Amino acid sequence: MAELYRFLLDLTRIVVATIYIYFPAMAANGAPVFIARGTPMDLGRKLFDGRRILGDGKTFEGFFIGVLFGTSVGAIYAVHTDNPWFMPYALILSIGALLGDVMSAFIKRRIGLQRGEPAPVLDQTSFLVIATVAVKFSGIEYLVGVEITVIHYITGVALSIILHIATNYGAYRLGLKSVPW
Predict the structure, then answer these.
(1) How far apart, in whole angstroms, are the C-alpha atoms of residue 179 and residue 84?
(2) Count of alpha carbons within 13 Å of 7, Cβ hemisphere only?
(3) In whole numbers, what is the pLDDT of the chain averaged over residues?
(4) What is the mean pLDDT of residues 100-127?
(5) Tell me: the pLDDT tens digits for 165-177?
(6) CB neighbours (10 Å) of residue 86?
(7) Is the pLDDT of residue 73 over 90?
(8) Long-range contact pairs involving 42-47 (C-beta distance under 8 Å, separation at least 24)
(9) Which listed site, 2, 22, 41, 124, has its alpha carbon 20 to 30 Å from 12?
């Protein structure tokens, strides 16, 4: 029984630490849904394959609001911890998350998926992959005192799949999205 308790306690610590580490990216990735319309990042242009580069779902306004939300989480962390490095950490994480989402839209257009069509795993994890790469290559995590380990990344992927499904369904029920995925 003591071993089960210790395992559950360790698992809880890992999950809480992972949410703390990735929350700016999660906030950034979820925020663009609050912008109903905007200027498409691809400006309506198509590639040689005749398909839109990104589509109407990726807008400059959505990108901006995502960066704002994610960086705001970093501002709260900075005040709470008295560590100003959380602001640039959250900024890098937010930009990485949104670029991952843009990359996902680009890939989906290339394989012929339309806006709103699901691409399992790609939809749920692309933001996390690029956000992690951005933070790792920037070296900012050491200035913040946070290290994204393999276990945090794996836990982040699992959490993002679960949270993606739940939040998209919630946004659909609230009328913020036209599809529940």
Answers:
(1) 39
(2) 4
(3) 92
(4) 90
(5) 888 888 888 887 7
(6) 26
(7) yes
(8) 47/109, 47/110
(9) 124
CA–CA separation, 5 vs 165, rounded Å? Answer: 29
For the whole model, what pTM was predicted?
A: 0.88
Contact 42, 53 (CB under 8 A): yes
For the chain, the domains span 16-31+40-173
Contact 65, 134 (CB under 8 A): no
* DSSP H/E element including 147: none
What is the Cα–Cα distance from 40 to 49, expressed in whole angstroms? 19
Structure tokens at 136: 């790792």
CB count, 10 Å around CB of 22? 27
Residue in 61, 62, 43 with CA at minimum distance from that of residue 53: 43
- In angstroms, rounded to a whole number, what is the distance separating the alpha carbons of residues 46 and 155? 37
> Shortest CA distance to 162 belongs to which of 134, 121, 132, 129?
121
Contact between 105 and 54 under an 8 Å Cβ cutoff? The reply is yes
pLDDT of residue 115: 80
* Single-letter amino acid code for the residue at 170: G
